[in-house]
Design brief:
The structure holds 2 protein chains of 2 kinds.
Chain A (H helix, E strand, L loop, with lengths): L1 E8 L4 E6 L8 H12 L8 E4 L2 E8 L4 E8 L7 H15 L1 H5 L4 H5 L5 H17 L28 H6 L4 H10 L12 H13 L1 H18 L40 H16 L24 H19 L1 H12 L7 H17 L4 H15 L10 H17 L7 H10 L4 E6 L6 H14 L4 E6 L6 H15 L11 E4 L7 H15 L3 E6 L7 H14 L3 E7 L5 H15 L11 E5 L9 H10 L3 E5 L7 E2 L3 H9 L2
Parallel strand pairs in A: 6-9, 6-10, 7-8, 7-9, 10-11, 11-12
Antiparallel strand pairs in A: 1-2, 1-5, 3-4, 4-5, 12-13
Helix pairs in contact in A: 2-5, 9-10, 13-14, 13-15, 14-15, 15-23, 19-20, 20-21, 21-22
Chain B lengths: L2 H17 L2 H26 L6 E6 L5 H10 L12 E6 L7 E6 L4 H11 L3 E9 L3 H16 L2 H6 L2 E7 L9 H20 L31 E5 L15 H9 L1
Parallel strand pairs in B: 1-3, 1-4, 4-5, 5-6
Antiparallel strand pairs in B: 2-3
Helix pairs in contact in B: 5-7
The chains are: A alpha/beta, B alpha/beta.
């Protein structure tokens, strides 16, 4: 079933490989693609990868610096693969422990690893166990509970609660009715059961509300399940059969109780919803809100519920740490000397702290967590040297992976490429795209100044036909640049020219005409300025994709500001998605580079650089550090990572 | 006159020394001797040059560095994948005279190569730059950029290791010869000198690579460099594929001459 299985060292030497029967292609290509896209781009969080028709799963062994990769056809769903890789890894390590522990690369070359028989045995065992665990067959109708109920019981009658409880179509309903029917401490038996039944009916009818409430109830239960010690709940109290009016905690019996003018007006809505959940939560005592208010973690409006969940988690962890303080100190000393291998639990607190540190430095939240996950995978099982703490190892690994992310994956040399295009007698076309107000026109002017200084002639295409004053802005820049570099010094013709067709026209058409004009007049570079657009605006994204697909520019630059936080992820993903969706060819032009602007406004919160390069995998080509023509820089990866890791 | 102020001091010193217990005197003299010897040792160790005994295998991705590494060390053929860390092993050349080097194979992937170069370049005695001759035409700009980065690195310029450019994959029919590769690289580096020096400075103000390759005013040639540069041809895979030996004699000979 498997197409191939390889074991190779991190240095690239294949120790052992297995190719399935009937498979003729070499697996070097897919495995190299796996290495390049997953491991090197720090997306090591999930351990599977698809490449054309193959699905690849891998496992890192950090103690002996090995990688185990298995590949099988994408259309097959093999359930035993994960466990199989783990088994193979354990067996291989046990068998070749002595050889692998030697230092240097010679150990890999001089030893032959005959793993064939063991491997075949393991494979057979795995296949057999997977077949043994056949999927559970569906129950026939006779076996289900429904066939055992009487028809009469399923008829809904007005005023009868019992029937509803037994004949509930979904289990959800029973759970929801039970708390609703809980005896409130009030004496509101007066209101007729109709009222409540109406409410219940209403609840059953509206499915989205049901779902929402169930979710809220689960969430609230999760929150409640935190550090507080809840006394084990006695089984649900026997409810009286008649319906009792639901009592809202804050409703009270008279209008005086409804007067919230003393309390903070903001919290009232939050508490209302909390009480809604309290009603639905079967395990919560109704009187638990009595008495002193609970500590700050529990009291807040709904938006802050997620933050509180995190706080609670942190609380529980710190309490655990304090209790194990003395033992922990001794353990730390023990950990300093001698070699011990890193485990997940050791790294967890440090990684959490690093993740929070990255988020504080303006790296997008899910990227921080993916990065930390990938670093954890890289370090799991690694043997630390003497006198190195867990924190320092993790920090060093994180620093290395950040530098790796910021290093460009391909050659970035615009001047060289422009020279190339010059020799081919065609203009080099650069397109700038981005959301509103990030600095596209300003940085376009800066880049044209740089190109002019290096002796190229530039044509600016004003394809922003929407924003008022866009064309005039570019014209002003053109005049300024021409006065700084007068035509007399550059062979009698102006170095910068503006190609514009006013407002309201089709941007893609203007761009095409501008490129043709540049070719005729032998301009070296064409800079295409587009209108800023929000990534959610579908028609505008389609227009941008059409512009790029039709004109096939040499470089598509996404302009993003360094102040952006989590939004960067959304912007880049949606821009790339739009470019990929609306292009007709099978190799769509995506974003080729990033221009990071307004870099002077952030001191060391440089996380946006990481977010953007991580999402697209493309390098940061320019960095804008101000509003004058000289404020254009290139990215220094080490300096940025230094600023990022600084405490 | 100068003796008069000193004499009373000398006199008092002599008297004090005679009064002292001889054991204490001996202890003081031993302590002083130890301090002097430590100073001498420290001076000796600190000022001794760091021994450079590493031969680095660098090059673009998929140029055949790891296979070359395996062939040089053991002569066998093994399948290889993209390296993500370095591999090092001691290497002794074929003839008896030469000493043992440490052969280090660095990953060629763009995001990793600068990190590993930083680590190992100061210990480099020679740099073996592996070039894929079969697809050289497509990659010429990337090869030249890497070579430029290497040649303008301040540490490399200071220690001037021997540079051996190996044109690998000569077993493929379309492989270019070493002479052609040398000419193309010279032309490319000539252009790169101009574009790189005009490149933007980094955002914290540091300007990369202010070393100018070769002589100004003249076209760039490898002979203008301060270090010894050699172009060799070889084939790590060998003409017979898996079973045969690799044609790396020229490389081995050059390594032996180091």
């Amino acid at each position: 079933m498997l197409d191939f299985f390889t074991i190779f060292s991190k240095g690239g030497i294949v120790l052992w490989c297995f190719q399935g029967a009937g498979v003729s292609e070499s697996f070097t290509g897919p495995v190299n693609a796996l290495i390049r896209s997953v491991i090197l781009q720090e997306r090591g969080g999930n351990n599977s990868f698809t490449h054309e028709a193959l699905s690849l799963k891998y496992k890192l062994d950090n103690e002996f610096e090995l990688i185990f990769v298995v590949g099988f056809q994408k259309i097959l769903t093999l359930t035993y693969v994960d466990k199989f890789i783990d088994d193979v890894q354990l067996h291989f390590r046990d068998r070749y422990k002595n050889e692998l522990e030697q230092k240097g690369a010679l150990k890999l070359l001089n030893n032959t690893f005959d793993f064939e028989d063991r491997f075949k045995k393991l494979l057979r065992e795995a296949e057999v166990t997977s077949k043994a665990r056949s999927p559970v067959p569906m129950r026939s109708f006779k076996e289900s509970e429904k066939s055992q109920k009487t028809v009469k019981s399923m008829i809904e009658t007005k005023g009868g609660d019992k029937s509803k409880e037994q004949g509930g179509k979904k289990n959800k309903n029973t759970k929801k009715e039970a708390p609703a029917v809980e005896p409130p401490k009030g004496d509101q038996g007066k209101t007729p059961p109709f009222g409540q039944k109406d409410v219940l009916n209403g609840n059953q009818g509206l499915t989205p509300e049901e779902i929402m409430q169930k979710k809220r109830e689960d969430f609230f239960r999760k929150r409640k399940m935190g550090p507080t010690e809840k006394p084990s709940k006695s089984p649900k109290p026997q409810k009286p059969k008649e319906k009792v009016n639901r009592v809202w905690e804050n409703a009270g019996s008279s209008s005086k109780n409804l007067d919230y003018s003393n309390k903070n007006g903001e919290n009232s809505s939050g508490e209302d919803q909390k009480n809604l959940e309290a009603q639905f939560d079967p395990e919560m005592q109704v009187s638990s809100m009595k008495g002193d208010l609970l500590s700050v973690d529990y009291e807040s409006s709904e938006e802050e519920e997620m933050e509180e969940e995190e706080e609670e988690v942190v609380d529980s962890k710190t309490s655990v740490k304090k209790s194990g303080g003395f033992g922990g100190m001794f353990g730390m000393l023990k950990g300093l000397v001698g070699s011990k291998s890193l485990s997940r639990e050791d790294m967890e607190p440090v990684l959490e702290k690093m993740k929070d540190h990255l988020i504080a430095k303006n790296v997008a939240a899910d990227i921080s967590s993916q990065l930390c996950e990938s670093v954890a995978k890289k370090l799991e099982g690694k043997v630390m040297g003497t006198f190195t703490t867990v924190a320092s190892t993790v920090k060093q690994a994180l620093q290395d992976s950040l530098v790796q992310i910021l290093q460009p994956k391909r050659r970035v040399d615009i001047l060289r490429d422009v020279m190339d295009a010059q020799s081919q007698r065609r203009p080099f076309v650069i397109t700038f795209c981005g959301v509103n107000g990030v600095g596209k026109s300003t940085n376009l002017a800066k880049i044209s100044y740089w190109l002019i200084e290096n002796g190229f002639s530039v044509l600016i295409a004003a394809c922003d036909t929407f924003r008022a004053g866009a064309v005039e802005q570019l014209r002003t820049h053109q005049r300024r640049l021409n006065s700084l570099h007068p035509p007399e010094k550059h062979g009698g013709r102006p170095v910068v020219q503006l190609y514009e067709k006013g407002y309201g026209k089709d941007a893609a058409g203007i761009a095409m005409e501008a490129i043709a004009y540049a070719r005729n007049q032998t301009f070296d570079v064409v800079l295409v300025d587009t209108a800023g657009r929000m990534q959610d605006n579908a028609p505008l994204m389609t227009a941008l994709a059409k512009l790029i697909a039709v004109n096939m520019p040499d470089l598509v630059l996404f302009v993003g500001e360094a102040l952006v936080g989590n939004e960067a992820v959304d912007q880049l993903v949606k821009f790339n998605q739009a470019l990929a969706d609306h292009s007709m060819s099978d190799k769509p032009r995506l974003i080729d580079g990033i221009v990071l602007t307004k870099f002077d406004t952030i001191d060391d919160k440089v996380g946006a650089a990481i977010s953007m390069t991580y999402i697209t995998g493309q390098p940061i080509v320019f960095v804008g550090t101000g509003q004058t023509y000289n404020d254009l820089r290139s990215l220094n990866a080490r300096a940025v990572v230094g600023a990022l890791m600084k405490a | 006159m100068t003796e008069n102020p000193l004499e009373p001091y000398i006199e008092s010193l002599r008297r004090q020394l005679e009064e002292q217990d001889p054991v204490v005197l001996v202890g003081v003299i031993v302590a002083l001797a130890v301090v002097v010897i430590t100073c001498v040792f420290l001076k000796y160790f600190l000022t001794s040059k760091t021994v450079r005994s590493a031969v680095l295998l660098v090059g673009l991705c998929d140029s055949g560095k790891t296979l070359l590494f395996i062939r040089l060390l053991s002569g066998k053929f093994k399948r290889t994948q993209t390296s993500i860390t370095d591999s090092s092993a001691p290497y002794k050349a074929k003839n008896d005279r030469s000493c043992t080097w440490t052969l280090i194979d660095l990953p060629g992937h763009d995001s990793l190569r600068s990190q590993y170069l930083e680590k190992f370049k100061s210990a480099a005695r020679a740099i073996v730059f592996v070039v894929d001759s079969a697809i050289f035409q497509k990659e010429v700009r990337d090869v030249a950029e890497f070579l430029y980065m290497l040649l303008t690195d301040p540490v490399v310029c200071r220690i001037t290791p021997t540079l051996l450019v190996i044109c690998n994959k000569q077993d493929v029919a379309m492989a270019k010869s070493a002479k052609l590769i040398q000419q193309q690289l010279e032309k490319e580096l000539n252009t790169l000198r101009v574009t790189r020096s005009a490149a933007l400075s980094a955002q914290d103000g540091s300007v990369g690579g202010s070393v100018y390759l070769g002589k100004k005013g003249k076209d760039f040639e490898f002979s203008q460099l301060p270090m010894k540069v050699e172009f060799l041809e070889c084939s790590a895979r060998g003409s017979k594929g898996k079973d045969g030996d690799a044609d790396i004699e020229s490389l081995e000979k050059s390594l032996a001459k180091l």
